[in-house]
Here is the input.
Amino acid sequence: MVHREEHNENFTIIDNAVLQNVNLSFEARGFFAYLLSLPDEWGFSVRGLVKQTGVSKSVILRLMNELQAEGFIKCKKNKDKS
Here is the structure.
């Protein structure tokens, strides 16, 4: 049995299509949930995600590729000055 509570603040809504997608690894599903939990104004970058999660760049890129292949995210390459 799963205990569910009603939430009025500080929660994230996730489409079941993502969570039940068998083409995504369980890790990618959790990563997507994490991405949705970040503030709207958070500046998404691979470098920032590596810093925030402690996960390697190669893992972040793999998870992003999984999510992009299934159409759940869109990625755009931007190069910064460094």
Q: What stands out?
A: The two ends are 50 Å apart (CA to CA). The chain has a mean pLDDT of 89. Helices lie at 16-19, 26-37, 46-53, 57-69. The chain has four helices and no strands.
